[in-house]
Amino acid sequence: MHSPLPGYQEALDAAISPSWLKTPVVRVDLEEARDHVLAESLIADRDIPPFNRAAMDGYAIRHGDLSTDVPIACDRFISAGTMSDMETPRGTCVRIATGAPVPADLDTVIPHEMSDRGSPVTFQASVEHGNAIHARGSDAKAGDVICPAGTSLRPVELGLAATIGRTSLMVHQPARIAIVTSGDEIVPIDRRPDAHQIRNSNLTMIRSLLETMGGDVTSTRWVPDDEKVTMEAITVEDVDMVITIGGISAGERDAFRGPIDSIAGLSPVRGVAMQPGRPVWVTGTQVNGQWRPIISLPGNPVSALSTCCLFVWPLMKLLHGMSAELPWSTGQLGSETRRNPRRRRFRPVCTDALGMLHVPHWQGSGDLVHASLTRGLVDIEAGSQPMQAGTLVRWLPWP
User: Fold this and answer.
1) CA-to-CA distance for 219 and 181, rounded, in angstroms?
2) pTM for the whole structure
């Protein structure tokens, strides 16, 4: 008697529990670091900002000297990039530019718009003490961690690295991935298929998805339904992860099962109670004393798309030294949605102008066309009754 298949969360917990190998740490120039994952923390080398900085054009003054009916003398101007050590006499102010250092004896900046811009100047309204001053160290103090290890480097993080003078960074080398597709019915995309054949769209889709996740696809190969050729393909060297597509169901010609079984030293996932994607496997083989994951995706395109997001993405994050947690969000159904009575469903989902979630009609997991305008996957728990519009659900935006 077969054991019941695990649910998604149970299967995911099993998939991320082995000590998978981590990708090597390398140094890259700052200009080449985008989309890499930090292998070190970024530390502020000085206070940020390093001085009391004017947040807008206007007048720097002592708050105690501020008056709305008495003209105030203003005899000098401080621009960004200059420093003034001159004392400001009591009862006077200075003109100041955005980004300029505020003199130590002044504590408030009043924008030009609240004055008559005269000389002397008359202010038309009062402001709070400290107005429009970006205080020294208010963003970070020297020695603070401003970006922790395990962060994916976007333009903002690269800007922070430049702020602290970093011209190069230690990052995790992107995971090198081999993709192996299978099936005698598959032909290359530039070939006209016969009536009983289909083009290899899965390879293009999954390759792009893996690269979006931060991986480096270094090897791709189609194999016929032949175990010897399949074994050669899945034991390729110099990769950190192997992705297979198709060939893991129970059919006589599903040629991945035997070769993977023969090299898998651990098999945390052998099918999941989910729709689509039930046949997904996560196995591992030892390479230099560490576990290299082999993730076997189903062959139907929507199944491959869903399981790549739900299983490959967390493992990719682990290999890059990150948390395996995925960026799930909470949304609200905008229309009634059917459920599967026995299995959790992960369906491509659209959003409307109000941000409501709608599951489009589909023809099954072979129907990739219906997924073309979707924004991510919605998690629909098993049940016999439909989920009504307005129900709160969690959903996972595409990477």
Assistant:
1) 11
2) 0.86
